[in-house]
Amino acid sequence: MVVLNKIYTRGGDKGETALGDGSRVAKHSARVNAYGTVDETNATVGLARLHAKGSMDTQLAAIQNDLFDLGADLCRPGRDKDEQAEYPPLRLADSQVDRLEAEIDAMNDVLEPLRSFVLPGGSALAAHLHLCRTVSRRAERLTVELSGVEDVNPAAVKYLNRLSDWFFVASRVANNDGKDDVLWVPGANR
């Protein structure tokens, strides 16, 4: 259980922060950049949810919870030693990736194939989902960068890769099942 009764601690006043295992690192470390951008992604999902209804809102709520799981995973280095711990840390699971894939497939079944690239926009929800997509792509790049220098749960990278795809397909659904997509017209303004 998490108890937050005091928000500021002054512990980061010198440019460091504590990771989930208690170790301290610079606030600009690759690990903090990765999970910080996952947090940014979550904030953009909160904005999208202001425009979502029904199953789309339910799915976005599940994604927000997954993103907290992902942040908890990324803020805790040292996967191998943790598996033996009495209370192992929360790690993202392949089943969460599988759920995203199933949802992408279900949404994609109602869409016509694309014949052009889609410009971010259309409905308010679609525009917000495109913002979610681009921020999640940045989180993915930073997590992949982190995985080049430190051990990272492979499911974390897979999840972020599928997540940006989920946001793209969901943006098309939010645009009247793709009928109101704003399509790129190459060289239209020459």
UniProtKB/TrEMBL annotation:
Transmembrane segments: none annotated. GO terms for biological process: cobalamin biosynthetic process. Keywords: ATP-binding, Cobalamin biosynthesis, Cytoplasm, Nucleotide-binding, Transferase. It is found in: Cytoplasm. Pfam families: Cob_adeno_trans. It catalyses: 2 cob(II)yrinate a,c diamide + reduced [electron-transfer flavoprotein] + 2 ATP = 2 adenosylcob(III)yrinate a,c-diamide + 2 triphosphate + oxidized [electron-transfer flavoprotein] + 3 H(+); 2 cob(II)alamin + reduced [electron-transfer flavoprotein] + 2 ATP = 2 adenosylcob(III)alamin + 2 triphosphate + oxidized [electron-transfer flavoprotein] + 3 H(+). Its main location: cytoplasm. It is an enzyme of class 2 (transferase). Residues 7-174 form the Cobalamin adenosyltransferase-like domain. InterPro entries: CblAdoTrfase-like, CblAdoTrfase-like_sf, PduO-typ. One of its GO terms (cellular component) is cytoplasm. Pathway: Cofactor biosynthesis; adenosylcobalamin biosynthesis; adenosylcobalamin from cob(II)yrinate a,c-diamide: step 2/7. One of its GO terms (molecular function) is corrinoid adenosyltransferase activity. Its EC number is 2.5.1.17. Gene3D superfamilies: Cobalamin adenosyltransferase-like. Belongs to the Cob(I)alamin adenosyltransferase family. PANTHER family: CORRINOID ADENOSYLTRANSFERASE, CORRINOID ADENOSYLTRANSFERASE MMAB. This is Corrinoid adenosyltransferase. It comes from Actibacterium atlanticum.
